[in-house]
Write a structure and sequence with these properties.
The complex is a heterodimer of chains A (about 500) and B (about 180). Chain A has about 500 residues and is an all-alpha fold. Chain A is about 75% helix and about 0% strand. In chain A, strands 1-2 form a two-stranded antiparallel sheet. Chain B folds into two domains: about 10-95; about 100-175, no CATH class. In chain B, helix 2 runs antiparallel to helix 3 and helix 6 (about 100-120) packs antiparallel against helix 7. Chain B starts with 7 loop residues before the first helix and ends in a 20-residue tail after the last helix. Classes of the chains: A mainly alpha (about 500), B mainly alpha (about 180).
Amino acid sequence: MDPVIQGMSMMLDPFNLGLILVGVLIGVLVGALPGLSSPMAISLLIPFSITLEPIPAIAMMAALYCAGTFGGSITAILINAPGAPPAAATALDGYPMAQRGEAGRALGIAAFSSVVGGVISLVIFLFAAPSLAQVALNFTPPEYFALSIFALSMLASISGKSSLRNLIAGGIGVLLSTVGIHLTTGIERFTFNSDQLSEGLNFVPVLIGLFAIAELLNQSQATERVVERVRAGVMKLPSREDFRLIWGTVLRSSGLGTFIGILPAEGSTVAAIMGYNEAKRWSKNKEQFGTGCPEGIAGPEAANNAATGGAMVPTLALGIPGSASTALIMAALVMHGLKPGPYLLQKQPEFIYALFTAMLIANFAFLIIGFAGAKLFAQITLIPRTILWPAVLVFAIIGSYAASSSFFDVWVMLISGILGFFMLRFGFGPAPLIMGMILGKIVEETFSQSMILHDNSILAIAERPIVMFFFALTLLSLAGPFLGSWWSKIKGMSLGTGPQGE
Amino acid sequence: MSEQTPSPDEKRRDAAPFPDPGDLLVSALLLAGAGYLYYLTTQFEEPSALLGENVGPADFPRLVIYFVAILAIILPFESRLQPERWQKIWEGRHKPVSTLTWISIGFLVVVSLAAPYLGTIITMVLVSLLLPLVWGERRIGLVVTFAVLFTLAVTWVFNVILKVYFEPGIFGVTAKLIPFF
């Protein structure tokens, strides 16, 4: 059967359609709830998805990923509490508009822009992923090694507080990936004579610990938030005047968001911030930004949702995750016995069409869900944290335990969670560690293969043009954040706005 | 340009010594960890002569250890290299960890250690019953209702429908003991 029809019809099966809708519901829910995030929900979902067929399981997570990005905008607009970091920029204009009594209009603009951004990025994904995979099919281990190193170096600029700490967390993740039996020689490494560790560290409990338990401990020191609620009314489609005003912003932000999503390790948050900044830069109403400007909602919403489709491109085509959520989706693929990368798309071309259909359905589903239930989703923030977080803990325990019916994994989750909490306090993010853990295996495998192919000569590897290209990009991405700081400093000093006392 | 009065937080931050003791501690911990892991790599078995020509089991971890160690040495200087970003980290960590967080950590440790003996269902009941109380929830009716209904729902979905194995523990509590399951 034609892979297009096969992939699409697979997702139209009532059971799979139900899974996608469940994914959308969970996504909007966790997106709307401050503290809960799409990566956390995906990490909790992974162990339970093992009973499902791989493609529907991944489709459900992809739907959750799309909807989670949109869900954050509901609470950002109605209570000025972005449910997810990518929606932070939406609150800047969404909340003031809602305060003016136009909550329905703000939600409508957010939903419309999100859907357009999502659909545009999916179309690009549909064409870009197979093309990129076709190019990647010609890659030999050295090229893959260089590409993986470049992806790791992008951790330096991943959203977070510190490039240096992101790189250290990524390095620790890579080290964790080396636990277990060395594939080439069969020698045990860092196993401490433990049978459970000889097969390697199971990344599901680690990621549940880092995303769910660390956040739980973080929430334990938060006070119950008292929020001013804006009456939601009903969600309204943007008016003709709104359409006229935002269409350029939506298209620009969709392209920008998709591009940022494609870059390894960059995610929706960066896309949303850039979407907002670009919307402001191109706008004729710059002075209205921050007071409830429609373009200020459309820009970040189109960009953050477009980044979800974009992030899928390197994840599936190259096996290099485009964001924290796609890193987890990649982990789920590995758990289901699939190896993300060009060979997956070559051997199972229906996979990409199934995912495209699932994410397309998800985009329209959250539009409908958003229209029908925006008021309801705003109410879920009323769930007291003293009830919400114990529920998360139960899911975390069951999720870690379910993967291999072993309490050892619950302890791994606990240790990861406590470490994750202190890491967060000291500025080390969980996403770089997980990416390091996933990419670490690829880096080591391709490094070993490259050395075998080139008689253990690193110089021979570096002489290859594509390798040189990726190494140059790696140097740029490593130096980028530091050069940026110095450049701002120099610029500030030349404008006479240097730090006080200098 | 108008002079702004620094806030108490800013005053404390500006008075922070260089290098920052917190960063020094993290750096020292990372270096100690790197040293220990390096030592462990020296204890790996030697590969056979046939495979000895290739990349050894210790080679790649050592490269990563060097990388982390170099970054750990740079870490205390981050406050000078990227002052704006460092300030955000400083603001996030200078507040002490709350007593409730320490209690929650203790609770998690006890629950994880006791779980194999208590079994999955009892562990779920205890978590949903005790953690809300530990966190200050005083609506006992709400907590009990939540603990019972939530445990039943999770057991039904994961144990009965998805067939996830639930450890009975020393009390032998399984879903079969629950009517209608």
